[in-house]
Automatic annotation (TrEMBL):
UniProt EC number: 3.2.2.27
GO BP terms in the entry: DNA repair
Location of the region described as Disordered in the Swiss-Prot/TrEMBL record: 23-169
Pfam families, per the entry: UDG (PF03167)
InterPro entries: UDG_Type-4/5, Ura-DNA_glyco_family4, Uracil-DNA_glycosylase-like, Uracil-DNA_glycosylase-like_sf
Record's catalysed reaction(s): Hydrolyzes single-stranded DNA or mismatched double-stranded DNA and polynucleotides, releasing free uracil
Keywords for the protein's UniProt record, in alphabetical order: 4Fe-4S, DNA damage, DNA repair, Hydrolase, Iron, Iron-sulfur, Metal-binding
Residue ranges with Low complexity bias: 31-48
Keyword Metal-binding: yes
Domain Uracil-DNA glycosylase-like residues, every copy: 200-347
Protein name: Type-4 uracil-DNA glycosylase
GO molecular function (one): metal ion binding
Length: 365
């Protein structure tokens, strides 16, 4: 017959009885271990070992009370509070007196308690750089070139549009001074590379007669005036026979304003680039008659390749002005018999001028 607890306490046998009950617990622990060996690790962690031990044990109520006092309070993995995206690693246990903790041996609950899973070290919370971003090299500053300049107190200065060089006015709009300046600085063709002076023209800007030669020679290039030297003197004598003069009712110009090297014939592209200047001179003078001196001048004005002999003796037209073709004075210096033919051409030019309303001027002194 079991003694009452109060009697055991009176005889001081209660601690011995408890120790005997504790000695029987290792047998129960071994039984619980064999029962749980058929299960996997995850199932063993979830099953409460204390329940199976209570079902198989035939211990008295004092043993159950001792187990209930010794069993710690556990919190399941799913019910743990979550902090910063990961479960709390500490388990909540009730506070126990220090003496009771030392006196209680490990129970089956503590023996089969699963170890908490090892948590990886928390990663840094700094925002990750996108791997798709291609940063420019350290020495590449080209991407700063288009940034507007910052003005203190006024923000960024507005970018100024690119200013293109102003186009010069069209040749057909120039007056005498502007046209002469344009010819003096002309670099439209390769003849500008070897010239000494441009040969613009000379004479009366309101003349009825306009004489046009082909290109400057050596003397003309040096002095900057057309028809100088021996050929110029012969031309002055021819004009005097018609009661005309270089500075009286006559304007003299050339198709080409720069001397070709070696006195060669001008190239077609050189004529094309220089022709607008001559066209503007004719428009400014407004002559009643044009006399083409030499083959090249006649072919350039009339846009033909016909010989000078076939062009003589007839009235042609350039820019609405009558044109008479005759020999160049330099050619007449080498071929004296053709002077008579040149005189006939001058007589035809005088008659044409009179027919156009021209009146003879006072004979030059």
């Amino acid at each position: 017959m079991a003694l009452h607890d109060s009697v055991l306490e009176e005889f001081g046998l209660a601690p011995r009885w408890v120790r005997r009950g504790m000695a029987a617990q290792p047998a129960a622990v071994s039984e619980a271990t064999e029962a749980a060996s058929g299960h996997d690790a995850a199932g063993a962690a979830a099953v409460e070992p204390e329940t199976r031990h209570a079902a198989d044990s035939d211990a008295a109520g004092s043993r159950s009370a001792a187990r209930d006092r010794a069993a710690p309070t556990r919190v399941s993995e799913s019910s743990r509070p979550v902090q910063d995206g990961r479960p709390n690693e500490r388990r909540t246990q009730p506070a126990q007196p220090e003496a009771q903790t030392r006196s209680q041996p490990p129970t089956t609950a503590t023996l089969h308690q699963p170890k908490p899973p090892t948590q990886p070290a928390p990663a840094s919370r700094a925002p990750e750089q996108s791997s798709s971003f291609d940063a420019p090299p350290d020495d590449d500053f080209a991407w700063f070139d288009d940034l507007p300049t910052e003005v203190p107190g006024h923000g960024h200065a507005p970018s100024e549009p690119r200013r293109e060089a102003p186009q010069p006015p069209a040749i057909h709009t120039l007056d005498w001074d502007a046209l002469s300046e344009r010819v003096a600085g002309c670099q439209s063709c390769r003849l500008c590379e070897k010239r000494t002076n441009t040969v613009f023209g000379v004479g009366d800007h309101n003349a009825d007669w306009m004489l046009i030669g082909e290109a400057p020679g050596e003397n003309e290039d040096r002095q900057g005036e057309p028809f100088v030297g021996q050929a110029g003197k012969l031309l002055d004598n021819m004009l005097r026979s018609l009661t005309l003069a270089r500075d009286t009712n006559v304007y003299i110009a050339n198709v080409i304003k720069c001397r070709p090297p070696g006195n060669r014939n001008p190239e077609p592209d050189e004529v094309a680039r220089c022709e607008p200047y001559l066209q503007r001179q004719v428009a400014l003078v407004k002559p009643k008659l044009i006399v083409a001196l030499g083959r090249f001048a006649a072919q350039s004005l009339l846009k033909t390749e016909a010989s000078i002999s076939s062009l003589r003796g007839r009235v042609h037209e350039y820019e609405g002005v009558p044109v008479i073709v005759t020999y160049h004075p330099a050619y007449l210096l080498r071929s004296l018999p053709d002077k008579a033919k040149a005189w006939a051409d001058l007589c035809l030019a005088r008659d044409t001028w009179r027919a156009a309303g021209g009146a003879p001027a006072n004979p030059p002194k």
